[in-house]
Protein 1
Amino acid sequence: MNGAATPALAAAGLLQVRDLRRSFAGVHAVDGLDLDVAQGSVTGLIGPNGCGKTTSVNCITGFDRSFTGHVGMAEKPLAGLAPETIARGGLMRTFQAIRVFDSFTVLENVKLSMQSFDGTTAWHALARTRQFRRTEQATEAKAHDLLELVGLAPKSHDLAGELSYGQKKLLSLAGILMSSPRLVILDEPVAGVNPTRAMEIADIIKAVNERGTTFLIIEHNIPFVMRLCDSVVVMDRGKRLIQGTPEQIRNDPAVLEAYLGGAANVGD
Ligand SMILES: Nc1ncnc2c1ncn2[C@@H]1O[C@H](COP(=O)(O)OP(=O)(O)OP(=O)(O)O)[C@@H](O)[C@H]1O
Ligand SMILES: [Mg+2]
């Protein structure tokens, strides 16, 4: 979707947030946020430390339900739903801190991600029912496919604890893709990752996006955001300052002022 004028805003909305508000003891962490994620887009969410990005995502995904405002995906309201319900509805997320099981293999980690989605229980597993075996085969095939996609197939049987930091980020991504989500929210997917690996991760996300998954990506790495995203939302003090194409964002004086104190260009 890169290239066309304001494509993300013109395309059908998958996620819509209106007037989202969340306070902590009088601190307005999110202060009337509006946000649109177009179906099929890779949308970036940038803004200074503490401007409310993670809090917003916590509210959108049901991990924090003490907010006011409208959150809807594909025209269905999400506000008030539990995180598991939202995940089953096709909205998956990662966290700023990595969550992988170091003492399980890479393949096992990806398969474990599927456990709460495939309808099998410990009883099915113990009895090795036909349903369990069928599901197990499908899960195994899908896990291999996704490990191939994120470039971790050669490491399938290594312990996850042996992976580099960047590889663990990719493993988390493969795990959340197991349930074929419509929308994936990534919180700082390349924080602490070296620049070469960050650009590899951008290409992998693009490849996943081309298979039909929509992304909302929080990130401080501006070159990564500018390379990858169709639409960028700039947040400042709990609200949307502007949403536009990378070109529009890069040239907006208010963005330079709010985000970088007017000190530099946004991206190159
Ligand atoms: N559980 C909490 N209790 C109290 N204050 C909180 C809590 N969570 C977030 N905040 C405050 O809300 C504001 C927004 O925090 P948030 O983590 O959403 O920012 P962010 O944009 O994700 O920042 P960063 O880029 O550093 O990750 C900050 O002032 C933060 O201190
Ligand atoms: Mg954050």
Protein 2
Amino acid sequence: MTNLIAPGLKRMSVSVTRKMSASLPGLRRLAQDKGLKIHHLGAGYPHPEVTDPRHFLEHEAGYLEHLTQVEGLNDPSVLPENLREAFSYGDTLGPPSTRQVFARVYGNDWNLEMKPDCLIPTVGATGGISLICSVFENAGLPLAYLTDAPTYAGFMARAGLCQQAKIYSVEMDGEGPIPAVFEQQIVAARAAGRLVPFYYTVPDGHNPAGFSFSAKRRLEILEIARREGILILEDAPYLYINFAAPADRQQPFVSLDPRQTVHLFTGSKIGFPGPRVGYLYSEASIEIANGEQASLAELALLQASADILFPNPAAYLGFEALLHEADFSERTSMWPVAEEKLDVYRENREIMLQGFESSLGAYPDLFHWTIPMAGFFSVFTFLSGTIRTDDEFIRKLVTEYGLVVIPMYDFYPPDARIRNPNAGLDQLRISFCFSESAGEQRRKDLTEAVSTFCTAVKHLAGVD
Ligand SMILES: Cc1ncc(COP(=O)(O)O)c(C=O)c1O
């Protein structure tokens, strides 16, 4: 032990998802000792079948070779510029070419004329969340972070690091955050002397709430945010993991108003999580000290230059390769990239929803599940009032049925659990994105997992 005294420094609590993954090997052994097969309905990871990097690595090598050709280098002893750039100290904004191509392709997909200089590289969406929190925390003022109840565990973990920030959460209905509660929470936070910089949300394929906001609700929330002078921090990892027909896809907040929005793009789901590629995009301008105006992109850039100094240029050039076709011409859209992944997720989603419907559809008074139009999750609710989805219940599902699912209660911020101590305690987050197997075996495993889940919940609810 040293004699350093750090008063005020607190040990943060660990999220239930982390606790689950820590306790899983033990629970798995217990289940396997009973001869039970483990059924994955918990993990929120991209499916291994769509994250095999081998084809991508070939394409990336070809793209870099193509860049060398474009440079006009024929002398193999001369180091190509793209190779030099990939392993050098770069710029906090990352390779300019990647930002320019991304701005065109993403802008085309989401009906937006994107300004490449407003794109700030981040370490995935996680880095984007942290970056924007840091920007506002630097001033040392008491803050209120507005978010949904339930909300993404990673956001709660980051918000929880800042002792002068408090989460003010907003309950949701089937369309999104409830506007009246949204307004009340802003008023309450301001009355408590807190600055409310943004509202953090995941409008498409909400993790963990398992649905996407309606178009109408997005406009209502945007209207309040404009009126109250609050940014919308839009975390968009599942924008392309979208199950709606193209004409029915919702507009993200960034398309509706890039000046009121801070949009977080990540390459983790459309590409690969490992390279940690992401962008924060905003055209917002805010008033800072002494009544000065500052663009949010500029504030984020300054923060990033101290936080990460510069993003990994090789990872960004690899992502740039993904924005090019097989013949290395620039893509006009990322939807064909998404389509390769969507085949698997669409199929898994159908297996889950059809399984629920055929086994549990006859009990609408007992069970409810969300129909996700994007993302990886559905929220399953027990309506009988007799089932409590606490840690003991989760443990029982693993050890008696081999089922791994995530309880919802821990996704409710502390204030929501004070308003309703039972919040989430009748719900589970069911994920349909991950299994250890591929192809036909994946279909069989998921079908079996869903069927085991339905048998278990009927048994536990006393209807078998
Ligand atoms: C809502 C949400 N935000 C952020 C992340 C993390 O994304 P990244 O890998 O880009 O940091 C996830 C991943 O599960 C997520 O669901």
Protein 3
Amino acid sequence: MDIAGKVAVVTGGSAGIGLAIAKALADAGAGAIVIGDIDDTKGEAAVAGIIDKGAKSVYKHTDVSNADKVRALYEEAVNNFGQVDIAFNNAGIMLGEPGWPDVGIEQVGRVVKINLLGVMYGTRVAVDVMSKTGGGIVINTASPAGFGPMPNDPMYSSTKAAIINFSFSCVTLQASHNIRVNTIMPGVTDTAILNKSGDGNAPAEWLQPLLGMINILTVEDIAKGAIDVIEDDSRVGEALSIENPAETGGEVGYIRLKDNTAFHERALGR
Ligand SMILES: NC(=O)c1ccc[n+]([C@@H]2O[C@H](COP(=O)([O-])OP(=O)(O)OC[C@H]3O[C@@H](n4cnc5c(N)ncnc54)[C@H](O)[C@@H]3O)[C@@H](O)[C@H]2O)c1
């Protein structure tokens, strides 16, 4: 997809990876970027930064765990800019303290609703909206954490695993609706979510040894991977793992995973 002139919706776009992706879209010539987030102050600042780059932008307060609010976010995009071409379902949280299994049951549901249902709601509405204008691309933010156990925060790792599977399962939307659905899986990246794994001021104790061992990625590293996926129309049903330089010999690495199971091939009618 040529990003020039396109309209994008980015959830969790007030800060961190979502903000970097919103800025990278503006740098790539996107016509308009609609930010949905719950941090209104940072959201309005994000919009100002995007407008400075020459794109149009609006912010809408959106809790992605609420399907009606997610629909309203897309309606805001259509009302302002006529269509949506790029949907970035990116908002996500970690469990925070106390970790598993001491966490309160409400927080268990909160993580699942934001991380997983938020992605499902966003994808569902994107299908409705994009179908009216001939298609588009959906990118969902998962994590390499989705591939392994995470004893202190299994809500995070299991919702991320589910996003990978959900997005693989949406591959048929390309044939049926001309909508490419892909996943990005950022390695550990320097954002506020690291402190949110703990008490908000510092990473959780269980995470700190890992952080001391690795080179942490920048949000720009992740945005570059996302832009590559958007621009390359051949990439569909893919989960892009954006790897730590320390594990790839000094450069940011990309591992492209694709669901090529026989079942998947049958689902595609091949
Ligand atoms: N930073 C990492 O190391 C890392 C690694 C892998 C995956 N990820 C994923 O990347 C995504 C972005 O995380 P980040 O690292 O930029 O974190 P971040 O905390 O910097 O940004 C998350 C954004 O989501 C927003 N948000 C939180 N709850 C929301 C809700 N209910 N509705 C709408 N917006 C909400 C926050 O206000 C914030 O702006 C998340 O899905 C996260 O799981 C991050």
Protein 4
Amino acid sequence: MANKCLSASSNCKPKDFIDFGLFPVANFPTDQKIFNKYIKKNNFIKKKRLKLKICSKCKYLKLENKVNSRILDNIYEKFYKYPSAMLSQIVPTRDDLFLEKLFKNVNFRRVKSVLEIGCYDGYILHKIKQKFPKIIVSGCEPSQGANIAKKFNLNVKKKFFNDKTFKNQKFDLVILRHTLEHIQNIKKILTDIKKSMNENSYFAVEVPNVNFYLQKGLLEVFSFQHIHYFSSKSFDVISKDHNFSIFKNFETPENLIFFLKKKHDYKKKKSSNFVKLYSNKFLSKIKENTLKIKKYISKYNSDEIVLWGAGGFAIAAICLYKIPITPKTLIFDKDQSKHGLTLLDTRSKIMKIDNKLLKNRKLIIITSYYSSQILKEIKKIHKRIDVMQIFPKIKLIKI
Ligand SMILES: [Zn+2]
């Protein structure tokens, strides 16, 4: 049985925090016909109430009514696509920032082997290998991403990680990025990870920083895929419970990067002084942001609006920020594999970026974390158009 809260030791009682209402189980583009058939055949549900609880002790939010993980894994395995940095489908700014911190803070003279759990297309492993060719890198990834990694000759197993995946092997560095927040049983995965670490191994973790979203009233992080929402303080709790020591930590600011080591001595270390959870004003901030968006877009008709970015962010824009879309709303994405698919039950198909289609359009809404990259691409079009960005701050830009 999984714990009631993050902490295994303290007896905390997470409280109701927010109810976003019905939200899609699959927050990515799909071929509606095939997807609906699959859902029906398997008796799955398409939407569920997205509700979160908060724990003031663990400084952490938790998904309340989870989707059965077997169902979620099935849907993901069958339908989910993510752009690949190895195939140059995205500029991996988030991954490069992680690599910068990794190379600066980890002593690679002591690292002979690396394991990345949830390595997707193997971009991080590839970069480590490029810099240190003698290091043996291994990975583990259940999605299609594993096939991409294999094409680049990376040793990546296409499966979910557990203590049997790399049985009897120890790694000097274990990496877990944007994965821990998806895993139901944190205790189990951390126990399994520890088994694959040496006494002096590093354990590098990256997760979204819930405090960033709470402080700014931003909603794109929330979905059924994310069961846990951590703050820096939550890693204090995790470290204490699972006997890790925090070696280095960073807020990027929208993500948390933690470098942990196994704790050997129980010498009293100065306890980390992490900030509180910015949860007090969250509801009023959301209201403020939603009103701001509503005010901005009220000046345009739906056939004048373009959404640029057709992933989970766009789903959050529609379902959580309540940006109305109609069959006339144009949806652009750079990723070829999304073209012709749709978001939710809308009839508006995702299109390839095409300047001609922008002719009568007056507002582009950037529904992506990569606002500055997309803004550059829009500027290259040389067209007078208004742009609304949501991340990291909601604002209207006239071009
Ligand atoms: Zn708690």
